[in-house]
Structures are given as C-alpha cells and as structure tokens.
# Entry
Amino acid sequence: MEFLKFEPIGSHPLEDRPLNIIEQVNQTFTYLAAVKAADLLMQWHPEAEGFRLAPGAHAPKGTLDVESLAPGIVGAETFAAVRPENNRKLANDLTKLAGRTEHHRYVFFISPAFPRTERLPEKERNSVKVYSIAFNA
# Structure
C-alpha cells in the first residue's frame, strides 16, 4: 500500500509527469466529473457558447472547474468522492459558488452513494443547483 500511495509509478491523466497511483485515480475521476458536467451543461445551456474546463487543485486562482465561454452565464464546481460530504467538499463548493455572479451555478459530483444522474434539491443552497452524475452515464 505504501508503494501505491507514495511512489510515482503512475502518470497524470493529461500532463506528461509522474504521479503515485492513488493520485492518478483521483485526478482521472476529477477530470471525468468535469467532462460529464460540461456535456450536460452544453445540452442545457447552448447560450453559454461552449465551456472552459479547469478542474483540479492546479487550476488558476479564481476560476471554476467549468465556466461558460460567454461571460457570466454558467459556472460549476465538480468532484468525485465516496460521499459528497467527505472533506466538506460539497459544503465548500456551495460556499464558493454562493459568492459568484454567474446566472446558472452548479455543483456536480460522482459518488457510488448516488448512482444516478439526478438533481438533489435537498443539498442545494443559495440558488446553487446540485447534481449527482452516474459514473457510467
């Protein structure tokens, strides 16, 4: 287990650099969540004129994981976790988006605890919509 956690035997899903296997899996699911969210958002918001994706911890400060190319239309945060409450990820993303001015604001997540793509209004705060995304969708 120590070898998988600490040795750089894997690789970043988009960049040419080594990662440990655990981080490779985490990064892969982070990008997968952002791509799946952008796919849904393109269907729902053609007025957005496309989307810029910048998921992950290395995204530029002040950006969201998914942003509409048309300014101020759509903004979203995305993640993958065993449960959306882990590490307060959902709560932190809701707080981050509450202070944003985009007309449509979302949090999307992939979690085995929520196997379907569906809106979860009971988790929403401050007009930020929350959706689970089916892993195999």
